[in-house]
Specification:
This protein is an alpha/beta fold and 472 residues long. Helix content is 21%, strand content 24%. The chain folds into two domains: 308 residues, Glycosidases (TIM Barrel, Alpha-Beta Barrel); 125 residues, Galactose-binding domain-like (Jelly Rolls, Sandwich). The chain contains nine helices and 18 strands. β9, α8 and β10 form a beta-alpha-beta unit. α3 packs parallel to α4, α5 runs parallel beside α6 and α8 crosses α9. The radius of gyration is 23 Å and the shape is elongated. Pfam families: Alpha_L_fucos, F5_F8_type_C. This is alpha-L-fucosidase.
């Protein structure tokens, strides 16, 4: 059974990353530039990377990913490989380095540092020449991976406009170089090797979502082979590559003054449809032309954090007596006993005997409790196992068990939402599992915020020149 490596495990448990789309497009009011912009346009009045990192830390984001180069080829660091960079801008008299400021700020506040480096480069004159451009690209990657301290997250975007030159990237060499220079970094692309794209830019994963796929079926730069493959994965797939769910707090990826951030309810809903479906949410928060986060965005992020804290800070299971139909070793009080699900530590878990694939775990609370969110978590360090389950509640009036919600996969975290329920008995039934079922945590919570699922639009947004072309 495929299991996560240390990079993947830390990334999945981190749950939230913040994306920073900031660069030339911020000043041209575009989503995709064309590479002909003058570096003179880049001159922020008060760029404050410490604010970016501090807000990320305050609002619960574990990683901060800076766009070091977007499709226009403008470099946010003084790369020796191009003149299209901050070194030829008036900002700090050409001595500035956005990547350096972000790297330093993340470490000062304790947030992981990540880098996005666009493969498509509309400014580079050798783009389209397989040998020369791959040398150019890996040269820039070497600069970024060698001069800015530890990098824990690398993002490789497969996007390219239909008008772009044909280009064959040496992905195997690029990924090998990345791992050689930053062995602790989780690498994202359409097909991994550590993290895969979920197949949409709306921030949602499939309700069935396996962390496993077959990498040979997915190619970087192509849309999913079927609409559901990227968002649902493949049961029994040979490669453990969990999905990243990307979306922006605003309609566009770069800052546009006329746009407004998503509401707290929508952001909470996006958390439920990404992290709550065995995914990892990377939320883009674009700095404005001054080089800081807009006040409205910061307010939305703080509201988002408060809403999540309000939901998950209390748990109706905390005083439960827990029993199960089967326990490894036969002892409820042993290391694999059912009470292990009352913590959120994946290192402790309820386990069944090796030959069991169907089992039930039951929680008896000391009094009636009200909840409308059910949280389930597997100890994913041992692989993703459960393929079908349901949550049932005991009806005091009829003295029978009633199915509250059914589901398929669980993985790192499955969040079920329901109408408000009042009961003192809840059970989780596992109907099928790829190996002996394991559960690390069961939680019952209450949310005041309605879960608004993002619209289901597959594929990448294809942006033209102006902000009005943005699709998300």
């Amino acid at each position: 059974m495929p299991i996560p490596n240390a990079r993947q495990l830390a990334w999945q448990q981190g749950e939230l990353s913040m994306f920073l789309h900031y660069g030339m497009n911020t000043y041209t009011d575009k989503e995709w530039g064309d590479g002909h912009e003058s570096p003179e346009l880049f001159n922020p009045e008060g760029l404050n990377a410490t604010q970016w990192a501090s807000v990320a830390k305050e609002t619960g984001f574990k990683f901060l990913v800076i766009v070091a180069k977007h499709h226009d080829g403008f470099c946010a660091w003084p790369s020796k490989y191009t003149e299209h960079s901050v070194k030829n801008s008036p900002w700090k008299d050409g001595k500035g380095d956005v990547v350096r400021e972000v790297a330093d700020a993340t470490r000062s506040v304790g947030v992981g540092f990540g880098i996005y480096l666009s493969p498509w480069d509309q400014n580079c004159s050798v783009y389209g020449d397989t040998r020369l451009y791959n040398e150019y690209y890996m040269g820039q990657l070497t600069e970024l991976m060698s001069n800015y301290g530890p990098v824990v997250y690398n993002f490789y975007d497969g996007a390219k406009g239909s008008w772009g030159k044909a280009m064959q990237y040496h992905w195997d060499q690029i990924m090998t170089l990345n791992h050689q220079l930053q062995p602790g970094s989780a690498i994202f692309s359409d097909n991994g090797p550590d993290v895969r794209w979920v197949g949409n830019e709306g921030g949602w994963a499939g309700e069935t979502n396996w962390a496993t796929i077959d990498r040979k079926k997915v190619h970087i730069g192509a849309n999913p082979p079927t609409p559901s493959y990227a968002s649902e994965g493949e049961e029994g797939g040979p490669d453990y590559i969990p999905p990243e769910c990307d979306t922006s707090i605003r309609p566009g990826w770069f800052y546009h003054q006329e746009e407004t951030p998503k509401s707290v309810d929508v952001l909470v809903g996006t958390y439920f449809t990404s992290v709550g479906r065995n995914g990892h949410l990377i939320l883009n928060v674009p700095p404005n032309r001054a080089g800081v986060f807009d006040d409205a965005d910061v307010s939305a992020l703080r509201g988002f954090r408060k809403a999540l804290d309000d939901i998950f800070s209390t748990d109706a299971t905390s005083d439960s007596n827990v029993t199960a139909s089967n326990v490894r070793g036969g002892s409820d009080s042993g290391p694999f006993g059912p009470p292990q699900v009352l913590t959120d530590d994946i290192r402790t878990y309820w386990a069944t005997e090796d030959d069991v694939r169907e089992a039930t775990i039951e929680l008896h609370m000391t009094a009636n409790k009200t909840f409308n969110v059910v949280r389930l978590q597997e100890p994913i360090q041992l692989g993703q196992r459960i393929s079908k389950h349901c949550v049932q509640v005991f009806d005091f009036h009829t003295r029978t068990w009633t199915t509250l919600v059914g589901g398929t996969t669980i993985g790192h975290k499955r969040l079920h939402t329901t109408e408000a329920v009042v009961t003192d008995k809840v059970r989780v039934r596992v109907y099928s599992s790829r190996a002996p079922p394991l559960l690390a945590s069961i939680g019952l919570h209450y949310s005041e915020h309605p879960v608004k699922e993002p619209p289901r639009e597959y594929g990448r947004a294809r942006f033209g020149g102006s902000a009005s072309d943005a699709q998300i």
